[in-house]
UniProtKB/TrEMBL annotation, chains A, B, C:
<dbReference type="Pfam" id="PF02729">
    <property type="entry name" value="OTCace_N"/>
</dbReference>
<comment type="subunit">
    <text>Homotrimer.</text>
</comment>
<comment type="function">
    <text>Catalyzes the condensation of carbamoyl phosphate and aspartate to form carbamoyl aspartate and inorganic phosphate, the committed step in the de novo pyrimidine nucleotide biosynthesis pathway.</text>
</comment>
<dbReference type="GO" id="GO:0004070">
    <property type="term" value="F:aspartate carbamoyltransferase activity"/>
</dbReference>
<keyword id="KW-0665">Pyrimidine biosynthesis</keyword>
<keyword id="KW-0021">Allosteric enzyme</keyword>
<protein>
    <recommendedName>
        <fullName>aspartate carbamoyltransferase</fullName>
        <ecNumber>2.1.3.2</ecNumber>
    </recommendedName>
</protein>
<comment type="similarity">
    <text>Belongs to the aspartate/ornithine carbamoyltransferase superfamily. ATCase family.</text>
</comment>
<dbReference type="InterPro" id="IPR006131">
    <property type="entry name" value="Asp_carbamoyltransf_Asp/Orn-bd"/>
</dbReference>
<dbReference type="InterPro" id="IPR036901">
    <property type="entry name" value="Asp/Orn_carbamoylTrfase_sf"/>
</dbReference>
<keyword id="KW-0808">Transferase</keyword>
<feature type="domain" description="Aspartate/ornithine carbamoyltransferase Asp/Orn-binding">
    <location>
        <begin position="232"/>
        <end position="383"/>
    </location>
</feature>
<dbReference type="GO" id="GO:0006520">
    <property type="term" value="P:amino acid metabolic process"/>
</dbReference>
<dbReference type="GO" id="GO:0006207">
    <property type="term" value="P:'de novo' pyrimidine nucleobase biosynthetic process"/>
</dbReference>
<dbReference type="GO" id="GO:0016597">
    <property type="term" value="F:amino acid binding"/>
</dbReference>
<dbReference type="InterPro" id="IPR006132">
    <property type="entry name" value="Asp/Orn_carbamoyltranf_P-bd"/>
</dbReference>
<dbReference type="Pfam" id="PF00185">
    <property type="entry name" value="OTCace"/>
</dbReference>
Length: 388, 388, 388
């Protein structure tokens, strides 16, 4: 997994602390804080967030160790190899497997158990420039299920000093003084990377415009592994808006890491999967084909991944939207041809692209999928703040 | 109180978990979770919210037992007979008395005492489709005064996926994965019941449009009992907007459960109490009369319950509003004729229907009434999450 | 410091509880609560916020004493001489020094240490009638870093019952029932004082329109003392919008308390420092002069305090704004003439009045200044809730 440490943004995250390192001696804790990118995954470093005294931190580490000795797998204090969660490309197969193992541990944590306190004392700032109740609540629940605390801005774009013309970088430099980790949603592609390059604390990208939404990609793969028990050699049908849905694009990318996967693209003409992903899959030796026959694909696939046709992308072209929207619906008929072990997934929210009568079928996995977002985010918060 | 358990929505809350029960074995904790409607009022069940292991839960129960042994009355773990708080009609007189007893215990809880931790580890989601700072803060304060945590959406209507066309049911199925109880405010009458029929966790109706606002009704009755020391044989004057105020309607409904109560309706012609309530009271043998003379009513009543004339209901008819608004004001003169033991109540906010110089009089109970909302909500959260 | 106790609003805060004292015996805890203005700084009193029983409170005090015996300097329980934080004028030099000492203690608090729990069980309500993410997050982080909890309203003006026409006083009387301290931001000058005159719990002014923003003033002085190691005999250049910036006005006011301070005003013609402050400084024997030469001032000053030209104050006069805005920029050239020990400060947010290439210089203190806001607010919350 060492390779994971050598990503470009990892390098940039080192350069980012230089200005701080130059800071005048006045603030020793500031100085230590500026180092946190290198140290923070170890319990010691993080404990110094408000302290200039090493002895304190050590005693603090013992306190933690004690408080969780019933859950030895937690807080072993080994550095997590990623500084920030910015894009699906960060994750190699080993890292995915390791993160999924932690997510499984998270599923087992019960209320008021030692595990439920492993992030006690840590503060997460949810900096949302674009409202997204689902994603925000999922992250905040994850933090609180682990005993951590949350600072919320539901509409940073309108409320924050951004309205007065402050740069994202300046906002980050201020917020990093208030919290231990930043979860950011932004309307501009690349904003998360800019934030991470500035911050001396971890940044998680909760979606940056048309760009990336890596935690969604992770929870999708985790759900497939959870539902089917495997990822190798599976057949996945991606259905609906494949042109605009960043979810399906990231998913296709991550699936390419597993051998013998076959992907089917089923979408209306106007929102077909773009060539970059097709070419990428081919280059990785991943089999894929386009199909106009949902029933046939559903009958052969292990996963039918349905997505919402996003009206907002059609603008004035209402007819195109209505035509695209009605084309591929997952209903009882589709269920009828699906295999017993197969599952239906959807990133949610859904309109009518999956009919409500499908919900009761055990193969309807989309609400379990949403719940898995909780465990994946718990795992990532735990790994970024206290390490393995 | 067994009867209370046989309400229709209680039945529906059983049917609601069927789809989950059918869910494939993959997720044992999901399965247990889906059962929580039957078990959750016992401490064990709830402790399994993230667990598949019975032994854990038992140990957890002991931990809780220990942590509160100084306050034996808490968490005795007996099931609360209600699954959700949806409408005033749910409460028979015995249930009211029992809830009020718990509310009295809540008043005695001090900061950092064992009692202040009985909801530690529990997560409440406040899903507000319509902003209501007063009600939201009251619920969130109640949860935090008991050591619980909160996920907030101040404006779900605009921010949540509802904007993208997601159904309330889908939103609930997602949010129930993040929290242990949902407090919902909605603009549509009946929305709370729909949410409860979907959710596998308790739902509290914090007001659904013109529909119900049961916790307000409870705190009103609790305040009368608290202020007068009794509910039997009291005389209550309902003043102001009786046509649109759901508060006075629910209050009249609940008062009918106590013997020898007499109710006076004092309101402008345009916003008179509707016939359904009058007929209901008559059918229950509750004496009532309409009066145009506030002074006379005030001189005989134990409770003068003033309400705000709601401008928003008059639309263009500004004159009607102004006329209705000025008609019945509670001022020093009204105070002058009231009995020494009588009290003035108001659901708040108030405009000028009670003059400010009345506030200093001991009989002005409306701010104590607001504070009682805290204790009633603490009691309900405690009962729904950990039982008697 | 006794003098500090004899402020006019302190007197008013006594009169404010009279109505409550008259309250009927029904609610003993209410009665005690109403006294809290006099007692609350002692640990006992506050512990009664939900209790009517003295013996409880005593035991509670012991619990607290125990819980912090590793940090003896905390919670010694001596009354803080201020009831509310409303305006810079409240602070004499001794009080400032004492608050700064506590702020230094706050810098040393580490995660999960006893100090990080001194406000456990306390609830802060952030009542923001005007959004200000930076200030709100800073206060909420301060409360949570000390183990306290928060109730948030990001946009009270639009959401709260204020929209229905409720007076600020009524809102305060309701909110004081839910929380232990209120942090308020309002659009009207004087609103904080009105709130404090109503509330029986402490109120902190987080900015009231063109009025005051006392915690900003405190963190500015704290930062100077932190960066230079002294406040006596320093030379401070106030640059930019001196007419509208309440920050620089409060700063000038507080600096006048220290001997041999010299202040330079450097601003465009249209936004010059107003005469009231100039006259005040002269009356206090503080040397000051106006200058149009930023370079010369920068070369002699210990502190260059730059501010943003506030477009919103210029309305239609876009040309005036553009002219004013471009006039005095702090850049590498300015840095070049500044002394090695001098620092650049800015209340933030900044636009381009400080060029980004300045950030890396150790003398750029503005992000450390923002961080200091955390420690000052931690100190104030601690002092108002549990005393020295």
């Amino acid at each position: 997994m060492a390779t994971a440490a050598s990503y470009s943004y990892s390098a940039s995250s080192m350069s980012k602390v230089m200005p701080f390192r130059g800071a005048k001696g006045g603030y020793r804790n500031e100085f230590l804080c500026s180092q946190s990118k290198f140290l923070r995954q170890t319990v010691e470093s993080k404990s110094m967030f408000l302290s200039a005294d090493n002895k304190y931190s050590r005693s603090r580490m013992q306190i933690r160790a004690m408080s969780v000795d019933k859950a030895p797998s937690f807080s072993t204090g080994n550095k997590f190899q990623l500084n920030d969660i910015l894009e699906a490309q960060q994750f190699d197969r080993d890292t995915l497997t390791a993160i999924f193992d932690v997510a499984r541990e998270m599923e087992k944590i019960e209320i008021n158990s030692p595990g439920s306190q492993i992030l006690k004392g840590y503060l997460m700032a949810t900096l949302f420039y674009e409202p997204s109740t689902r994603t925000r609540l999922s992250f905040e629940s994850s933090m609180k299920r682990l005993g951590g605390e949350v600072l919320t801005t539901e509409n940073a774009r309108e409320y924050s000093s951004a309205a007065k013309g402050e740069t994202l970088e300046d906002t980050i430099r201020t917020v990093e003084g208030y919290a231990d980790i930043i979860v950011m949603r932004h309307f501009e592609s690349g904003a998360a990377k800019r934030a991470a390059n500035t911050a001396s604390i971890p940044v998680i990208n909760a979606g940056d415009g048309p760009g990336q939404h890596p935690t969604q990609a992770l929870l999708d793969v985790y759900t497939i592994e959870r539902e089917l028990g495997k990822l190798e050699g599976i057949k996945v049908g991606l259905v609906g808006d494949l042109a605009n849905g960043r979810t399906v694009r990231s998913l296709a990318y991550l699936l390419s890491k597993y051998p013998n996967v076959k992907i089917y693209f089923v979408s209306p003409e106007v929102v077909k999967m773009k060539d970059d992903i097709k070419m990428y899959l081919t280059s990785k030796g991943v089999e894929w084909e386009e199909s106009a026959d949902l029933m046939e694909v559903a009958s052969t696939c292990d996963v039918v991944y349905q997505t919402r046709i996003q009206r907002e992308r059609f603008g004035e072209r209402t007819n195109d939207y209505e035509k695209a929207r009605g084309k591929y619906i997952v209903d009882k008929a589709v269920l009828g041809v699906m295999q017993k072990h197969a599952v239906i997934m959807h990133p949610l929210p859904r309109l009518d692209e999956i009919t409500v009568d499908v919900d009761e079928d055990p193969r309807a996995a989309y609400f379990r999928q949403a719940k898995n977002g909780l465990y994946i985010r718990m795992a990532l918060l735990k790994l970024l703040l206290v390490g393995w």
